[in-house]
Amino acid sequence: MDESDMSQATNVQGYDPRELFARGFKLGTADLIQGGSFSEVIGRTVIALLMGLTDANGKRPFSGVTVILPPASATSLNDVSVFDALAAGTKSLRGSEPSAQELEYLRRGVRILNCPTLDTADLEALVLREGARRLVAVASASIYRDLDIESPGAFGLSAVLTSEDLWVPHVASLCRRCVAAVKGMDGYALIHVEEPPATRPHNTEQLVAIDGCYVACLAIDHDEKEEVGRRAHRWLALALGGDISVAITEIDSLQLSEINRYHVRAQLFSRAALHEDAIAAITQLLPHISALDSSSLVQLAWLAHKSGDDSLALKFLPDDAELVSSVIWIEQGLELATVIEDSHLIERYDARLAQMYPGSDRLRENRDRRLLWNCSSKTEEEGLAFTTAGFTEKHLGILSAVLSQNPDYERIIEQAREWGADWLELAAICCSVHAWSIGQSRYAADIARQITTSDLYGRQATQVVLWSVRSLMLKEQVSRNDRDYYRAPLQAAIRFLALHPEDGSIRSQLSRLLSVDSCGDIGIPMVATTMLDIAEDGARLATFDEEAHTPDRDKGGIVEPDENEIKASIESGLKWLGAHGAAEYGVTVLPAELVPHPDKTIRYLVRMILMSAPKGEDVDLRFLELLAMLVCAISPHAMSERDEDLRAMRLVAGNCAVAGQFQRARNLAEQILVIGQGNALRQRLAWLGFADTYHRCRNMTEALVGLACALATDAPVSKADLWQEIYAAIRVLRDLGLFQIAHDFVPTLRKLASDLGLDAENDPRIVAAEMSLRLMEVSSNQSEEIAAIVSGLSSGCGRAMNDRSLLLPLIVMLGQAVQKAKAAAVHVDESTLELLKSGLALLGRQASQLVDTVATDAPSAANVTAMFNQVQRALYAADAAGDFENVGVAARRLLNDQVGQPASAEDKALAVEILADHAVALPEPPPAIQAGWPVYYSKSLNDAGIDVVFLGLDSADELVVTHVSNGLVQSIEQPRHDHSFRLRMLRWLEEYPRQYGYVDAEDGDDEFFITMERLDVRLPAPESLLVIAEPLLQQLTMNLGLVTPKDGEFPYLLGTTTAVGMMPSLTWLSMVRASDRSGKTAYRAWISTQEGPEANGTLGRALERLGGTFDEFGFTVDIGRQLPPDMSDAKLAVITAHGGLTAEGRYIHSIRDEDRLFETPTALAAALAGVEVVILFVCSGGRIDKHPWGNTTVGLPKLLLDKGCRVVIASPWPLDVKVTYNWLEPFLREWEAGSTVLQATKKANEEVAHRLGERPQYSLGMTAYGDVLLTK
Question: In which domain of life is the source organism classified (predicted)?
Fold first, then answer.
């Protein structure tokens, strides 16, 4: 072979390595060859270098050849494969088979090694050990992994992660290591990747950027995998845009093999969250399991799990982990085995991963996670949740100590301190998890909050903090006087979330923790205090403020020197986006050649967004979104403006919110968080955008969380961005009524404005901030202050006439100030009224109509209806309260009787319907409301013998009652008192309705009559009455309404003669009534207690007395000490438990038994989701409270209706146990006979009165909420 001359060989089919080296060859370098087979690339290249390469002295440059294969268990390649490849390479290049002598020469000169693991560090060590002047060939390079490289995630909804995205970063690292190894030893490395060549720009850039490594690609005639990867983003974008049928047609047109076609479909359906379709596609592959490679099997198993079918997942997941050779899929197999809690599979995949890649971060994380879950067991005797496979002695030591009889947490933590910082943190988390599991939540929170910023265990620590604080709040283990305790753990959770804006799960947990259902009305004060605590730490200014980041409005007229070119780039970019199809913020990237000046183009685009619309025209939100999308698509090419994408999206989101497109705005805010990764500054800007948007959407909790997180990133920030943060903080604090604290921020705002070259005294935004505070604080008798506010706003509007976005808030406030001045008899100059008129004209038709409707003291029903219909429907019903807040301001004025012109009863009914609770999920989006619809629908109910009454408060806080009966609508006059109805009702709420449950029957009924007489509500008393009320008035106990007969008879309580039902809104009732029934038939009951002689306490007595009724009507009874696990087939459910209010006596707060059960109302509602009829024998289970921060309600009826229940029957006050077994049987008998829930509830209440005496606390407690007209 030494004498062989390869230079004259001809007719080489396929890859010819001599072409690769035709321009020379250099020792100390490497070649990366992508594509081609092992035999073709390794065989031919090694032979070409051995037979055709000599140095200046005519000698062979290599001391020998080393072929490095992956670990034997990870490859089918072996010694035979190598020598067969070399022989085939000889024949291909020379045209003849190698002789026996030549084969012997190859066997002597070629060393074949298996790398011990798939760690690139081990591979580098192997190359170094081979010594100087060695030709090293690395096979199957794409399956190696670098411990220091994190696996990439699919960034964004429509982003597609192809196979090259997974292997390129690791191969790039491997190449760098190999070049470094051979460079100092005059060697050479040949690195082969059998995958199709990388094509994505960000991947090819990584490969070609490696010094000393030359990249070559072998052409592939047709590769299905490459073609699918090329089109995947388009298909996913089509699917997410609702055009999945087009994507499927394109997939089928590729003429893929049946296996590949169903595999691609399964992936597409899974990403588009079409889980049933994904399961169907995966099921089609069951007959082909034997033909699928191991990686595909693991992937399909994971897709089946994501779609909710773990049994199907187990059919695909290889039981023998030895069959899986790819590290990424071994890791995924271990994760899947852990998620579905299969100890056998966990043990196998743990062992396989430890063998192939012992340094895997995911292997360590999996073992740590299993240790943590095992530590949630109270003792070792209870049994462990997970296998301890792969645990080190330290893992086992921590576990044993934590689960000992009397664990000494401090000692465990101190012991781990000796093992290093990582073990210290792990031990601390384990101790906190165990402490939480045994009820020591305060200790758990105290330990976990110290490590929420840990790189390894910060997320687990934050979860423990949130679990622990929620448990403390649920059980009210922190006294009212000690609530400052919550500040430290909450701040710790914020500091983790600040650095992980993409972690939606943690943010959701934090939001649930701060909800009224979890912590009553202290959530917003807690997070506001936390935000202010972090703000006290101050902010670090960036060392160089790039003022271009916030374009100067005053310099808006400056023309860039290449403006025409910039306009051309924008036009080309918009055309490209249009041709590209569905685009996504942060994912879609414009080709670099279309934007030669990215920074200047971005600045120009942002100025266009700031201007928002020409004077007098409505904002084109679609066009603004396109501009923001273009900014995002250009940003990756920018140098100084790379973060302007986040600022542009914030501006567009703000415009969406102003236009009533609140869901559109929230979608943008969520996308801002997704793309706000990469560094601390982007995180800070993302949180600012999130906070600003959610404030404009009237969600103060999320706005405060966003501001706290922005500050907690502690990233150096420009003065312009700091100005925006403080401006947002002032607005949020103002709207929470924290006026003085908001005022305290204004001087800082002025100082920053001055530093930025703005007019600190007259800047329209500063004027708006200050005047809004003064406008909210001023009272009607402060004439001089009102006049000063009108004057100040007039001046501000005058200066903002050239900038629509600045003018809008000022014009809104000017309109409100003018109305306040008129009401206070303060003179308003004609010039001010002219200015207001001119300003409205500049805003465009939609915005000016909105401002006029909100500002006028007598809006028309048509305008209020139009304003209501213009509000975009929320994706989640809970957001509706904030979305309709401004509409509510105008709607309330429809209830006002003007001097000499009383408001029409139809308008009053409309106003109450708009003010009603729309934050309850509907079966489907409702149609646009018409001004006369509430009365029209009410009249249709009259035809069925049902009266309807509408209750609302006018602007003077007086009760307005509108009655629709027998096709006629009329107002029922309400008496006036020294104090408004609102004040009288708030005073009543301090004790009632809770106190009604504690009235002793022996004391008579006086307390009911006296307290209701003080409220003095005049209601009609027909046979059946449906009540539509705004949330504040839904708190009234309608059964206790005091009726005074006209004939002079004694007053009586409404519920004694009238069947009264309540619902969130008339819209809700109409939509639910029109929806299909569930078809469920089962009757189920849950009482957490014991049976037999051991039963004691209230719940045991209830079970004993209700047993006969349960048997008679065919109930399945669950007496488990946990919430009912499966009510999925229940049509009707009876729940008997203790209910607890918060320490202040408001808001249903807990569901308890007489043992250790302690659950949230939210958890109970989730357990009962979809049950048509829910009967709650739960103390205060029917209590409704107005949400402290929004126009919606809080309580179990709201929670259950929101979870798809149709009707709830419960008592608003604590219920005596004897009511339960006297009430249920007559209700069920009437229900079974075909009566409505409304009628059956009335009949059961009458029977209770008959059996227990006419005591309101017994006979008028059970009240129907929701679809009260439902029949069996």
Answer: Bacteria
Task: From 5, 9, 19, 119, select the one nearest 68 (Cα to Cα).
Answer: 119
Distance of alpha carbon 526 from alpha carbon 529, whole angstroms: 5
8 Å CB contact between 516 and 526: no
pLDDT tens-place string over residues 502-524: 899 999 999 999 999 889 889 99
Cβ atoms of residues 849 and 892 within 8 Å? no
Closest CA to 994 of 1097, 1139, 1135, 1098: 1139
Distance CA 499, CA 506 (A): 12
Place of tokens 């009543």: 988
DSSP category for residue 585:
T
Q: Identity (one letter) of the amino acid at 425?
A: E
Q: What is the DSSP letter of 635?
A: G
State the Cα–Cα distance between residues 599 and 548, nearest whole angstrom: 10
Gap between the Cα atoms of 1200 and 1213, Å rounded: 18
Q: How far apart (Å, rounded) are the C-alpha atoms in residues 1196 and 1193?
A: 10
Ranges of beta strands (E only) in 16-150 are: 29-34, 64-69, 110-114, 134-138
Max Cα-Cα span within the chain: 129
CA-to-CA distance for 468 and 474, rounded, in angstroms?
10
Q: Each residue of 290-318: pLDDT tens digit?
A: 999 999 999 999 999 999 999 999 999 99
| Helix 598-611 × helix 644-658 angle, to 10° | 20
Cα gap 408→411, rounded to integer Å: 5
Convert the pLDDT of each residue in 1155-1206 to its tens digit. 889 999 999 999 999 999 999 999 999 999 999 999 999 999 999 999 999 9
Helix axes 598-611, 804-823, angle to 10 degrees: 20
What does the alpha-carbon distance between residue 249 and residue 247 come to, in Å, rounded to a whole number? 5
Taking the alpha carbons of 30, 36, 38, 40 in that order, is the dihedral positive or negative? negative
| Residue tagged 């982990």 (tokens) | 321
> Cα 347 vs. chain centroid, distance in angstroms?
33
Asked, as a colleague might, if the bond just before 975 is cis with ω within 30 of 0, I would say no
Provide the token pair at 1025.
């009455």
Residue 1052, strand partner residues? 1043
pLDDT score for 551: 44
DSSP state of 929: P
d(C-alpha 106, C-alpha 119), whole Å: 28
466 token code pair: 């949130």
| Cβ–Cβ under 8 Å, residues 469 and 494 | no
Phi-psi label, residue 1114: left if phi above 0, alpha if psi -120 to 50, beta otherwise:
left
Q: Where are the alpha helices (DSSP H) in 111-200?
A: 120-129, 163-183
**Taking Cα atoms as reference points, which of 38, 375, 356 lies closest to residue 193?**
38
Residues, the chain: 1272
Residue 894's closest CA among 862, 916, 866? 862
What are 868's two structure tokens? 């209501």
Going by pLDDT thresholds of 50, 70 and 90, the confidence category of residue 234 is: confident
* For residues 1112-1119, average pLDDT: 96
| Long-range residue pairs from 832-835, CB within 8 A, at least 24 positions apart, any chain | 832/790, 832/794, 835/794, 835/797, 835/798
Considering Cα of 94, then 99, then 103, then 106, what sign does the dihedral take? negative
Distance, CA of 684 to CA of 673 (rounded, Å)? 10
pLDDT at residue 550 is higher than 50: no
CA distance 557 to 1008: 71
24's tokens: 């020379």
- State the burial class of residue 831 (Cβ atoms within 10 Å of its Cβ: 0-12, 13-18, 19+): exposed
DSSP 912: H
**Nearest 5 degrees, angle CA 1150-CA 1156-CA 1162?**
25
Distance CA 169, CA 1114 (A): 63
- Could you give the CA distance from residue 282 to residue 304 in angstroms, rounded to a whole number? 7
